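Re: [help] complex structure
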Amino acid sequence: MADAPDVQVSAPAESSVEPPRRRFAVEIGSLIVGGIVGLFPILASLFPFLDPLRRSRKSPEFYQDQSRSGPQGYLRVCGLDALTVGAPPQRFSVISNQIDAWNFSPQQPIGAVYADRPQADVVRVFNVTCPHAGCSVSCDGQAYVCPCHNSSFELDGSKRTSESGRENPSPRPLDRLAVNESRLATGDVWVEFKNFYPGRQEKTAKS
Amino acid sequence: MKDSFRKLADWFDDRTGARQLMHDSLYEDVPGGSRWIYVSGSMLVFAFVTQAITGLFLWMFYSAGSQNAWESVYWIQNRMQGGWFLRGVHHYMAQAMVVLLPLHLLQVVICKAYVKPREINFWLGLVLMQITLALGLTGYLLPWDQKGYWATKVATELMSLPPGGNYIQKLVVGGSEYGHYTLTRFFAMHAGVLPALLIGVLVLHVAMFRKHGITAVGADRRPAEYFWPGQVFKDAAACLVLMGIVVAIVIQHHGADLGPPAEPTEAYGAARPEWYYLFLFQLLKKFHNEFVGAIVVPGAVMGFLFALPLVAKIKYGHVLNVCVILILIGTAGYLTFEAIDHDNYRDKQDLLTSPSATDLERIDASQKFHLAKDLANQEYRRVEQLIDFYGIPKQGATLGLVRDDPEIQGPRLFLRNCASCHSYQPDTPTPVALPGPSTEHLEHGDLGAPNLYGFASRAWLTGLLNPEGILDDDYFGRTAHAQQTEGSFKSGGMVEYVCDTLTDLSPQQQAQLKDLIATLSAEANLPQQAEDDSTSRSNGQLKRGQDALVNEFSCIDCHKFHDEGDLGSAPDLTGYGSADWLRKFISDPNHERFYPATDPADPAVNDRMPAFARFADASKNQLSNHEIEMLVLWLRSDKQDLKHWEQRRSAAAAYESDPVSQPAVDPP
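Output below.
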């Protein structure tokens, strides 16, 4: 590239005076120094650009003290008595501290779940996010239906085949969330609330 | 492999003409050979490219808006990996550009590269200079901190000076008030309009430079060379040096400075433009007419610069131009130096043997400048602490954190409402000392009131209750209580008592006085003294002190103390210095509990302290309940522990909502 061999070069006569070895050293030097200088602004920007890949932040001190005493990693959804045995699923907001870049907002709705109680000692809780493309499912009492691409799920979360035989686009069942058993025994529904990557067969939690 | 690569290169070249383009840019003739003096233009291009790239990345994290701008910049600076470095590079590379601009101009003029046929290119260069300066001005506001806010406010207020200027100003600011639209406009200018203009003009500038070729120096004495590689190497090496300097400064300063968040109601006394605008700032101070200082003179200078190619046509015109450029750069340099020198004039205080009135004024102004700066630093550190503790709420740092923080509001309210009489002078380097009325240089009569640092603490009371102390400026020295008229203290019963009775105390009396002070100070329930108080309570000192107060020193002859003594002649000592006592005292010192105005002809019983919140209807009062609460919490605070003061804050909120029925109880 440096020699530009295909183009006729009308070099000024004097320039041939320069010894070739010296010229080569200057060329290499130019490329190296020019490269450093050219890459500098991009390198300076790279670390902040990659910042979102770092692990998530903690709540500020004041709100750490105030966090509700619950099992580690679980959030309270409702009291057990809010769920009638055999009734259709109900939708609940999940409340937790919200971190949005520089803003911290305590006790905000950060997501939603559907919960029902098919038997007295069984509580099923599902994340409302559709595992197909990340829309939000709703429940008509018979099934969970997604308004975006017609995914539908049975009340136990499994994929449903519609009566017309139309294909269900969801790659996996509705994402069921783990319920804390010891809290359930004392009459409260606490779930391990997580969001999962949509569009995949396996259920992978977002960190 | 090599063959297929060549084929690909041929394919690409057929469609783009890249080789010719590359050749044209590298094999530019440099008559007389490569020289170090030619590097300034390339350095400017390098600096601009750095600004464009780092600016684009900063854009990914910046949010224009008065509740977001400072907060997002704070996050870049403090929480994002390498964010401080990125912001620092953008900040200092901008300054490098402003330093390089006059050097480039100087090179162009000295090398005579501005005369026929290069006049238009010279003018384009001047336009580029204007755009760069405008980028600096718009960028300074974007962090929305106190210094950027107030400096830009001044700069844009000046835009309203020329005829029709108020319309221009409104368009620039995005309305008559500074806020969201000011930021969105400045940001659009800074990141969109101005860079686009700059790139456009730069392309023309470089194209025209290529057309006319380099203005060679010594072409007759040295062989010609191509631009590549000799000049490229020199340019790149110069850029590397520039980069090294900028990186060193960024690391040394840990990125660019960030002040506390903008507070439109709190003028910042140390508002200065970026240092490269200081010469304009200083120029403005020299002219009594702002229109002349801010517009006519800089306009005339700019006009002259545009006229340089024309001046060069006359005999000795070029020599004149070089001289004028040097004089202009020299003058700007001198004005910059002078501005910095005046801001640091207080350092000369001890060197000047017989300071003139001007010197004294400058020292005074310089002290105010540094006080504002120190306070801003203190505020920033406090905001850092608040953010660590509470996080940044959605309404932003100013509304969500600063407005309700006594450590920030306290000094501000004190300076505005109390410092015309009182001072607040800690005996430690932090917090920042707040001066009271100045007596050293300016005559204010004997106006003055006690130093309120550590009010009602044991140390403070120990200073008050001794004959030297009470007459000191830190206590009653400058109040009416200490004024002697016709041999007796004017309403100065306290001063008289201390001077007459508390001298030549026996060791036993001294111990009793110490007990008394402990007892009286315990009334204040100061958080930082809680441990001492509880020790003294359990070992009986408070009991002894009460006995000394009532019997030995018979304070109750004038003062009331719990069930002993009566109100009406001197301030109530029950709960002396407590939050409730202070609130009520600040609200109305003429109240029966404090300095009752028994004799209208002699208001000096309560010296000159105004009643800040005398009325039940809060709208009639000088200070709101919130402001009084901020002052009280700050005066009594232990400055550090946020957890501790969070408890007091809830009590304060209760008091603010219902000041009348709240019990006079201080939480621990």
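Helices of chain A lie at 20-49, 61-66, 181-185.
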